[in-house]
Design a protein that fits this description.
This protein is mostly beta strands and about 190 residues long. Helix content is about 15%, strand content about 40%.
Length: about 190
Amino acid sequence: MKSLSLNGIWKMTGTDIECEGKIPGSLYSFLLDAGMMNDPHYRENEFGALALTHDDYTFSRTFDFEKGDDRYILRFEGIDTMADVYLNGEHVAYTDDMHITYEFDVTDIIKDGENELAVTCRNIHPYIEEKAAELDLMKNIQALAGFGYIRKAHCMLGWDWGPFLPDMGIWRNVSLVTKNSARITEFKVE
């Protein structure tokens, strides 16, 4: 099994924002590194950072690839959180859990030469607000309403003294894995 890292410099675009940054990374890391936002942990800056998360952001990059006869798996070790994954303009998958690793067979989508990979991270606020309106099971005035309905690090959504910083992005490694033999993907210890 061979692996091609797709980490590195990516482009991020939003409604009024475009910049480059490093993956693994996020909305906030891209903007902080580019000098386009203030430290969200300073005084009241968290509210400006929170307002940024009411938009969708696309992280994209191109890479060259030489295709062989193997199967190809696109592996994300961490996408935060609700996102659509596209390879060469084709929708590969939707994700909704930042705590798991995702693997997608892209053998029929990847091509020789230049390929474009894009991940559109979605605004979580409408989803959690809708779920809280249906049945608000977890009341906490120091957290965003509906925080318990999303598979995201809850410390990002407020907690006691914690700030509201529901960041989004590709927060762990991303790679293209060549599957040319059998491999163990799951196991259970009893």
